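Allow me, if you will, to draw on your knowledge of protein folds for a short while. I have a record of one protein: its chain in single-letter code and its fold written as discrete structure tokens. Could you please explain, in whatever detail you think fit, how the structure tokens follow from the sequence? The record follows directly beneath this note:
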Amino acid sequence: MSEHQKSDDKNKKQTDKQENKNEKKSSFWVKANITATLSLFAGITLSLLIFPRPTESHTERRDLAKFPQFSVADYFSGDFADGVTEWFDDTVPWRDGFKNISSHIVKYMGVSLGGATVYGPIQEIKPTSTQPPEPTQPTDTNQPTPPDNSDSPSTQPIEENTSATVTTEPEFHVGAGEMSESNGLVVYQNTDTGHYWCVQLYSGGYSQDTFIEYINTIADQIGDSAQVYVMVAPESSEYYTPDQYLDYTVSQKKVVDYINNGLSDKVIGVDCVEPLRQHAAEDIFCRTDHHWKPLGAYYAAKAFADAAGITILEDLSLYELRTIPKFIGTWYGSTQDPNLYNDYDTFDYYIPPNDFDTYYYDTAYQNEFKAPFFLQYDCEENPDSAYSTFMGADNKIVRVDTDVKNGKKLLVFKDSYGNAEIPFYMNSYEQIYVCDIRFFDLNAIDFIKEQGIDDVLFTMCITSATGDNAFKMEKLFTNP
């Protein structure tokens, strides 16, 4: 064998040896990766099976899916399997923690426009009229029923010269929202205060004519038994929409004026939009939640008191001030925006100095029990619960008996916005009834007459008055 052949054989052996070594090394890492991946999936699967599943989401403020009840019919129809799948997907252990991590990742992948983050589709509002149409326009009786929407889907004060304050108003046109009162959410940083805000761009609503019709019908059926008032509250976007988004939101003041102008002479419309505008530099709206703050409700209560000719206790120093230091509300639940999560609100509320007792009932005014009006929540554990301080959930009837012995009785029909107003009326009425327009199973006309009500106040946010909640008011006068 020649020297050349020997060299080739030697090189071939070395090459084969190296390839074999590389194959073993590669095989090792393949096996290691497969083992690690299988272990990861096994660990995840084991954790999903072993660790407790949540029953509610604090960040989204809702109950999670429940494990379905078994039935033969549901089993063969596939509904039972679908229910199990929904429960399994909706109740992942550590759900809120994972969503918060995910929101931080999405932050760097989200849609940014004009220095803000936009959640949901937004559409520029095209003005079709320079003046609000007359409220005598007929209601479209063939209008389709919109999807269920609660009232619209905490605090550092806003400085006087904030860049987010509305300075101009886009034109108003009834129906501009095209069956939607919301035009998406915008999260932005106020350049003056450094705090993050979330506002819902209001696109005009679709049910204001129905709202007007139902209020007038109720007032007509009440007759002289009680005086009816309507106070539609604006949402924060009326005052705090960034300038670059003003073309995407409608003037809520003009919508409220349209509603008030359409009310019959038996109803007194109360404007709280302008009184709130005068105090927009104060701490009147939540930044991470769709509600106003108790201070905003206070200024609205003053507007109602002026219209009703009653006197409320206006000196806030006479109330007991309590502060919830950490509040992360519905807008975080809707957007999962990490800036809202890390820049939470503080929530101040006011307890009147007089004595009062609070009684709770079901929606048929039965099963009475006595409990505090102001409920205590651990907002460190549940940071979304601050607004529930006022009477807790909305699906009940509440009666407040005060030490004011003037014989006057107030009935408040409201959405959750109205909850924060009630403490400011406790020095003005001997008895206050609180009912939610979404959860009332009696005939309101009969209830008013039976309880001897003097004043009836319909108070709710503009999303309720011009959205799906307006349709729910029909049952107030049609219930047997």
Observations:
- The longest helix spans residues 3-50.
- The radius of gyration is 29 Å.
- Residues 112-136+154-478 form one domain.
